[in-house]
Automatic annotation (TrEMBL), chains A, B:
<comment type="similarity">
    <text>Belongs to the flavoredoxin family.</text>
</comment>
<dbReference type="InterPro" id="IPR052174">
    <property type="entry name" value="Flavoredoxin"/>
</dbReference>
<dbReference type="InterPro" id="IPR012349">
    <property type="entry name" value="Split_barrel_FMN-bd"/>
</dbReference>
<feature type="domain" description="Flavin reductase like">
    <location>
        <begin position="15"/>
        <end position="162"/>
    </location>
</feature>
<dbReference type="InterPro" id="IPR002563">
    <property type="entry name" value="Flavin_Rdtase-like_dom"/>
</dbReference>
<protein>
    <submittedName>
        <fullName>Flavin reductase family protein</fullName>
    </submittedName>
</protein>
<keyword id="KW-0285">Flavoprotein</keyword>
<dbReference type="Pfam" id="PF01613">
    <property type="entry name" value="Flavin_Reduct"/>
</dbReference>
Length: 194, 194
């Protein structure tokens, strides 16, 4: 495993998505692999951790996920903003060399036959929970998180440390038309004293 | 309507949630109204706009939404961090005067029999699309957005303006244990020149 990557306990995995970052979906089937960007992914449950992600009928990733039954949701960083926009704009349908042209580097995690994107801050390996009605009617896919990892320079001991980490490790939050926000200032409420 | 509140065209409504803010859900049925906080809400479609929200079986809001078939998703601000934590911690089941004790002020929007929370930056009036299997199995509710509004001091002409608005109008992004992040710096990619 990479030097800065550490496993995240599954009961803390929801925290990797709780703040609503734009994510990358990666998948592989029968020798074809792809990476796409998506703003519409969301935690769904704590234990076992589950999440939802919207995969439009015109994206190549959808068939890869349906056919392999597995996928990775990962959290790209400010340093990856151009890569994120690129994989969200270029389709593997139009460009069979998309990943190369988008400068996406992939790596493997032991025990998971899945393509993981280098340079992200967090990775969630997911097993598709087939729900044909949701998939067909709403393009809505549900995954159970079966493995989670984070870059310890920005997430450790169950918490993000955006406030002290290098700003290029912050998460991206997409609006539209090439316009993003980075995650910002930390704010705390003493919940024992409300 | 309030001075700073303007309607958002429905085809731009997804942008109010696209950056993954923590939201407040409000609802009303048979004279009972409630407001709760949730991190697990997400855009689902553009046109007509739809969204998902997770409503646990132990929250009072769930019955109000199921019985009335309508609800509001609204985006609280940094100025409302304590209110957000409070309505996420106190249950109407335990405290019938929850809204008063949480200092929640509600207002009405013409044409919508729904309670809207004062001081938020955006509001999405939703009609429940009943999906009993999702609701029962995953606590997952789907709504069609039938009305959208935003505070023009921070969202106008289809775009958030966090970078120029008062910082207290920024969105909140919850992690866990009273720890939030505000939305941060604006970042742009020229998508015509990737």
């Amino acid at each position: 495993m990479h030097e800065h990557i550490a496993a995240v306990p599954l009961d803390k995995a929801y925290r990797l998505l709780n703040h609503g970052p734009t994510i990358l979906v990666s998948s592989r089937h029968a020798g074809v692999q792809n990476v796409m960007a998506a703003a519409w992914a969301c935690a769904l449950d704590f234990d076992p951790p589950k999440l939802t992600v919207v995969l439009d009928k015109n994206v190549k990733t959808r068939a890869l996920v349906e056919n392999s039954g597995v996928f990775v949701i990962q959290v790209p960083t400010v340093a990856q903003i151009r890569l994120t926009s690129l994989v969200g704009s270029v389709s593997l349908v139009d460009d069979p060399h998309k990943l190369e042209h988008c400068a996406v580097q992939l790596f493997e995690m032991p025990g998971h036959d899945l393509p993981f994107v280098e340079g992200c801050s967090a990775w969630l390996a997911c097993k598709l929970i087939p729900e044909p009605h949701n998939q067909q009617t709403y393009d809505l896919f549900i995954g159970e998180v079966v493995g989670a990892w984070a870059d310890t320079r920005v997430f450790s001991e169950g918490h993000w440390h955006f406030e002290t980490a290098d700003p290029t490790l912050r998460s991206l939050h997409y609006i539209a038309g090439g316009h993003y926000y980075a995650i910002g200032q930390a704010l705390d409420v003493d919940e024992s004293n409300l």
